[in-house]
Amino acid sequence: MLCTSWLHSRVTGKALRSLTRASACPPTWIQQKKEVHALTILDRERQPASRRFSNHNRHQSTSATPSPLTQDLPTIYKPPTTGVISKLPSSWIPYAELIRLDKPAGTYYLFLPCMFSTLLAAPMAMVSPFQVVSTTALFFTGALIMRGAGCTINDLWDRNLDPHVERTKLRPIARKAITVEHAIVYLGAQLLTGLTLLLQFPLPCLYYGVPSLLLVTVYPLAKRVTHYPQFVLGLTFSWGAIMGFPALGIDLLSNPPALAAAAALYASCVAWTLNYDMIYAYMDIKDDAKAGIKSIAQAHEHNSKAALSVFSAAQIALLATAGYFAGAGPIFFIGSCGGGALALATMVRRVNLKDVKDCWWWFRKGAWITGGTISLGLVGDYLYRRSREESKVAAISV
Q1: Which of 34, 53, 142, 244 could serve as a FRET partner for 167 with CA atoms 20 to 30 Å apart?
Q2: Is the dihedral of CA 84, 88, 90, 91 positive or negative?
Q3: Quick check: 367 and 109 in contact, CB under 8 A?
């Protein structure tokens, strides 16, 4: 300690003498730096160990903090390296991404109401299993095409909003990989393909199908004016709940039970859309608020699970109503309604709305957890009722 004090006084005296001679012969900046550095070392040695340690930690934490410049760096687009899109030519990839070819959940949600209505109408129309399968296959192809067209329309409307949302800022139009002009031409090709496919169905399907294009166009605008754009999306995505009846030759306007069944099924699918798309909207709830985009998640942020429960109950009640008017049997009510209710209850209870990954998992898997359960009940009901009718015909012929 005495040695340290003596050394400190010697260095301090030297520094003072240097400053005194500054007017006559100022020291160089190197000499000043050495003297100040020596004083700093001595002062640090005289500090308690705990203080020296805290200063060291403060220096480390400050230097570890990333610069604002590095924090605000934009996310760089990376082409896909896995999946079906990665195998396409590089010039095709933006167009495949535009129609969400790598994210088929939306296609499933558009297709499933079509399958519901086809299976619900099949026992009423008494059609063969082959006709049910072929009609369902046409509906799936149409869902793939028209979902892509809907995504293109949505991204054209949202091209100035998507760059401000983390999940959408690298979409092809938002990142300028596809120009607006090229996107419009691409949309025209999709709509023309969809029309060609629609003409493969009975002619009444054309009259029922074309009005849905208005809803496809309006949905992106709804996000700007109401907190319930998911309702408009439900009206759009659920349109297939009507189409299965005319696709199998049932005239809804002259068949009141079929019309009531179709209307109830349509309403049930709208409630389902409110359910799954509310979970989807939670993934963007913060970015949407900043960008001025409205959603049902914002409207029910404080009672989200209660809202999901109400939508689920409405979906199952309306589904049961549709089955009642369609003359469905116990397999439908136990399998489709009971199984669907169990699937929805499990989802509502388990989904963590504050976890983006969990919301995405339930959105993707929910299509087949709930939709698949309902479909299995409908398939079972169709096969049972068909076999019963065949038995009656065989008994009469004998």
Answers
A1: 142
A2: negative
A3: yes
How far is residue 246 from each of residues 130, 211, 254, measured CA to CA in Å?
Answer: 17, 15, 11
Structure token pair of residue 187: 């949309």
Distance in angstroms (rounded) separating the CA atoms of residues 281 and 287: 10
Residue 73 resides in a domain: no
All residues at 6 or more sequence positions from 342 whose CB lies less than 8 Å from its CB, including other chains:
373
Query: Which of 328, 112, 139, 141 minimizes the C-alpha distance to 246?
Result: 139
What type of residue sits at position 295?
A: S
Task: Indicate if the pLDDT at residue 96 is higher than 80.
Answer: yes
Euclidean distance between CA atoms 363 and 282, whole angstroms: 11
pLDDT at 3: 43
Is residue 83 included in any domain, yes or no? Answer: no
For residue 356, the model assigns a pLDDT of 92
Higher pLDDT, 270 or 75: 270
Residue 175 CA: distances (Å) to CA of 69, 78, 101, 168, 291: 21, 12, 18, 9, 17
210 DSSP assignment:
T
User: Does 22 reside within a domain?
Assistant: no
Average pLDDT in the 106-135 region?
96
Pick from 377, 381, 365, 383: which is nearest to 337 by CA?
377
CATH classification at residue 100 = 1.10.357.140
Q: What share of the chain is helix, strand, coil (3-state, %, to 5)?
A: 75, 0, 25
Beta-carbon count within 10 A of 159 CB: 17
Confidence bin at 222 (pLDDT 50/70/90): confident
Q: Is residue 201 part of a domain?
A: yes
Find the domain containing 340 and state its range.
88-397
Instruction: pLDDT band for 79, please (50, 70, 90 cuts).
Output: confident
Angle between helices 129-157 and 356-397 (to 10 degrees): 150
List, as one string, the DSSP characters of 95-127: HHHHTTTT-THHHHHHHHHHHHHHHHHHHHHT-
State pTM to two decimals. 0.78
Buried b (16+ CB within 10 A) or exposed e, 43-82: eeeeeeeeeeeeeeeeeeeeeeeeeeeeeeeeeeeeeeee
Count of domains observed in the chain: 1
Among candidates 152, 145, 151, which has minimal Cα distance to 182? Answer: 152
